[in-house]
Design goal:
The protein has 8 helices and 12 strands. By secondary structure, the protein is α/β, with parallel strands linked by helices. Among the domains are: about 80 residues, Ubiquitin-like (UB roll) (Roll); about 80 residues. The strands form 3 sheets. The chain has a 5-stranded mixed beta sheet, covered by helices on one side. Helix 2 packs across helix 5.
Length: about 250
């Protein structure tokens, strides 16, 4: 066994035992334990970690912990560009895509509303979520921290809040999604892209009142659902505008 000192910063403390939060503490480590093994043994999923410093040097998760090491563990940096320091992942994600677990259907629907490719099915088992994340480069969204500790999950977010409206704001803020949003470009039901469609091509499928009152329509390329700018769309528009607004600023127009 070896002994090392650990210090976790900011929201990573939420995962620790109360007596270890906000302070440096020593912990016994197996002689061949990696930083990833010890970080997760202490309760923090590796997907929540952006930067690990050992004795002041940025290291990867594979670094073996040695006697007397001082390990500092940081979450995602919101305002500083630390790309040149990162060692914990082989590469960042360029196109943000998600897979949400069975308890996050409301969050998945809201992310689709904002235009993000988000897989969700309340029948998806953990093994399938892990497979999809690895095969398709998706960010795992879950409230199950053990799921995020799976070895093949490279990118993930532990969702801290409980209500879907708070969850989507949390994910938007943590991942800085506002700049990448493309509202109303994905089907809320099946996640496939939407395309504009001429009214004359779908007129027979529309309810009479909708046919009389609206002119612009979109259709799903997979399930063929038809969307129009009715009262429900206006409520969604306000919701998306709030997400795109800067903190404490007025709502943005999607």
């Amino acid at each position: 066994m070896v002994t090392a000192t650990f210090r976790f910063y900011e929201e990573l403390n939420d995962f620790l035992a109360p007596e270890r939060r906000g302070r440096a503490f020593t912990a016994a480590c197996a002689r061949a334990a990696s930083t990833k093994h010890m970080i997760e043994a202490l309760g923090v999923p590796h997907t929540e970690v952006e930067l690990v410093l050992v004795n002041g040097e940025s290291v990867g998760f594979e670094r073996i912990v040695r006697e007397g090491d001082r390990v500092a563990v940081y979450p995602k940096f919101e305002t500083l560009d630390i790309t040149s320091l990162l060692r914990v992942r082989a590469r960042p994600l360029r196109d943000i895509r998600f897979v949400a677990d069975a308890h996050l259907g409301g969050l998945a629907r809201r992310l689709r509303m904002a235009g993000f490719d988000t897989l969700y099915d309340n029948g998806l088992r953990d093994e399938e979520i892990v497979r999809l994340a690895a095969a398709e480069g998706r960010v795992v969204l879950t409230r199950d921290r053990e799921l995020l500790k799976r070895r093949t999950v490279a990118h993930g977010c532990y969702v801290r809040t409980l209500r879907a409206s708070e969850q989507v704001r949390e994910i938007f803020d943590r991942l800085d999604l506002a700049r990448s949003a493309r509202p109303f470009t994905r089907c809320l039901h099946c996640n496939a892209p939407l395309v504009a469609v001429a009214k004359r091509d779908i007129a027979d499928a529309l309810p009479p009142r909708v046919r009389d009152c609206y002119e612009r329509f979109s259709t799903c390329t997979a399930c063929k659902r038809i969307y129009w700018e009715g009262s429900h769309w206006r409520r969604m528009l306000a919701m998306v505008g709030d997400l795109l607004a800067p903190p404490d600023g007025p709502a943005a127009a999607p």
